[in-house]
Amino acid sequence: MNLPRIRIDRTTAFVLIAAVLVIGAYVALVSLAQQYYTVTAASPSAYGTDSAGLSIYFRYLEALRLTPQTLKTMEKLPAGATIIAAAPFENPPSPSEGRALVAWVRGGGRLVLAGEADAILRGSGLGASPSTGDPLVGLGPDQPGSLSRGVTKMEPGVSRLLSTDPGWVVHYRDGKGAVLMSAVLGRGEVVWLADTHPISNGGIGSADDAALAVALADAGRPIYFDEYHHGFTDDATVWDRLGYGGQAAVVLLAVGLMLLLVATARRIGPPIAEVEVVQARTGAYIGQLAELYRKAGARGDALSSLEDGLFRALTRRHGTLEAGLKHHPEAREALQASAALRAGGPISKDAFMTASRRIRRARQEVEGRHG
Fold it and tell me: From CA 181, how far away is CA 121, in angstroms rounded?
């Protein structure tokens, strides 16, 4: 079985190669951009290594053998655990995810919020308004308790919480509002730290912030850092994992493959017959033809026939005779010399052979053949 050969012209090949290079460069740039964000963006993530990140907090708990883990799914929340959710989030929790977390707390979970994470508590019956205060150094606990164990002074950051809800118990405060408060919700507990600074890479080493960070984690429960809402997810499909850059690259690749298919596929409809290419006469053929016409005394007719063949070759190659003559001045000269020879009366054998060879060479040049 003979398979049809795939023919790709130079322009199509150039476009396809350029498309592949552009897609590759685009994917590389997107990958570098995402990597740059992961390493340097100001996000309170356990993977964040800048001053706002929580990577030191995570490694500190590991050093204490408290085995913290990262939460990358909302499909099934860990029962009886502590989840630390620090805002702002790369992917803010949706209302349904907020309701799921509140239901999980009511069932016995412990949720530690840091920063402006009030969206999670909507519909829970607990509320507070964010405010600002002074970045004091040396703020002591408001009352003794599990969240003040080992803490004499802490550095609160600049955010505060204002609430008149009697369900909240305030553990740290100043004249501008609450710094840390907690509330019982069903069989679980919500703890809310107004500012992420005390647990961040830039603040956990100040005053007794490290001791406060350990108290927030609660060693009696499994500890999870909410990375799902910072963009690190196990729920995503392969398409989701590609991200916007990868998805765009796949679309571009699909378009490129479609263009390749269009460029190489057979046309729809009846087959188009190939144009018959009349081969240029060889020197031996011209000699035999010259002898026949010499004997018949019709060398002018022979040259006229050869001229017609060159006319057809020029028209077939360039669309029109005028365009062909413009591209091949040697063909124009050969045709003019042959026409002048025919108009001059009887044609000698040598003159006929010279004119016919010029026409033959011109036709070979037009048809791209040599020799």
Answer: 14
